[in-house]
Amino acid sequence: MKKRVLVTGGTGLVGSAIREVIESEKPSNEEWFYMSSKDANLCDPKEVSDMFDKFKPTHVIHLAAKVGGLFANMKYKVEFWRENIMMNDNIFQECQKRGVEKLVSCLSTCIFPDKTTFPIDETMIHNGPPHFSNEGYAYAKRMVDVQNRMYKAQFGCNFTAVIPTNIFGKYDNFHLENSHVIPGLIHRGYLCKEKGEDFVIWGSGTPLRQFIFSIDLAKLMIWTLRSYDEADPIILSVGEADEMTIKDVAYGVSRALGIPDEKVKFDTTKADGQYKKTANNAKLMKLNPDFKFTPFNEAIDTTVKWFLENYDKEGGIRK
């Protein structure tokens, strides 16, 4: 009998990467279904039930979430809490009721305590409150970890969660104001090159971050679905040695866009933000020691190439 894998949030950055990997693999023993918000309102129990009736999944990857930038998280804390809690509860309920064999949910490093030591690992999620600015979203996501353990204890469910670091790649949100650091840099760098202007980066460029290419994350999420059977979450990330400065990222983006190094400037009057958020991937590498991450510059080249090819096709890129 074929596995039937349903992916919520299946048309976004990670869902699109999973589809690309699966289409290249062509697994004969699996059927995959990619859902978007147009297919079902996951806050509505009936629509979630109808979706499960239609696709009859044996496995679920739950990527869908209410997400937003800093100011949205600060202004609408209740909405971020309620909508994510409702989505997650509906998915968990249907998976348990219907005997789904495996549920993999996607968390975020923002769920970790605001005041912590580094590197962070999977055991530290509940060691203190998250940053106040996104507490609605962060606490809702933390509850996924609690739910996984409760459903296993009471019903024996094989439910788990992954925690990726900063994701980038094709199909990302390249909005100039509401995107994450790499897609934002790519879009702004492109516009600066078109106008013949300096590529100005806010801040000193010294903060450190770990970045994971969406295709690598997709492969690791598929591995998690097939091979990882703990309720406790697992961090999916490059190692501490592959942490990069924002300055190195900026030069990687500029070179991929064909911007000379001397045109890249750093505006040190702007704030840098948190210096580091280092995550420990030791658990992943112990369980999946042969996994090879895509070299950063190769991943950036692929992402920039997709951006340039789709700039006039994808409305979200141009905003």
Topology diagram in text:
Layout: E1 3-8, H1 13-25, E2 30-34, H2 45-55, E3 59-62, H3 70-75, H4 77-97, E4 102-106, H5 135-155, E5 159-164, E6 166-168, H6 181-195, E7 199-202, E8 208-209, E9 211-213, H7 214-227, E10 234-236, E11 244-245, H8 246-257, E12 264-267, H9 282-287, H10 296-310
Parallel strand pairs: 1-2, 1-3, 3-4, 4-5, 5-10, 6-9, 7-12
Antiparallel strand pairs: 8-11
Helix pairs in contact: 1-7, 2-4, 4-5, 6-8, 8-10
Helix segment tally? 10
- Here the CATH topology of the largest domain equals Rossmann fold
Widest sheet, order of strands: 2-1-3-4-5-10
Regarding CATH, which class of the largest domain?
Answer: Alpha Beta
User: What is the domain tally?
Assistant: 2
- Residues in helix, %: 40-55%
The CATH architecture assignment of the largest domain turns out to be 3-Layer(aba) Sandwich
Cα Rg:
20 Å
Write down the secondary-structure element order.
EHEHEHHEHEEHEEEHEEHEHH
What low-confidence regions span 5 or more consecutive residues with pLDDT below 50?
none
CATH superfamily of the largest domain: NAD(P)-binding Rossmann-like Domain
Question: What is the averaged pLDDT score?
Answer: 95
What is the SS-derived class?
Answer: alpha/beta
Outline the biggest β-sheet.
6 strands, parallel
Instruction: Sum up the overall morphology in one term.
Output: globular
- Beta-strand level of the residues, as a percent range? 5-15%
Number of strands: 12
N-C termini distance: 45 Å
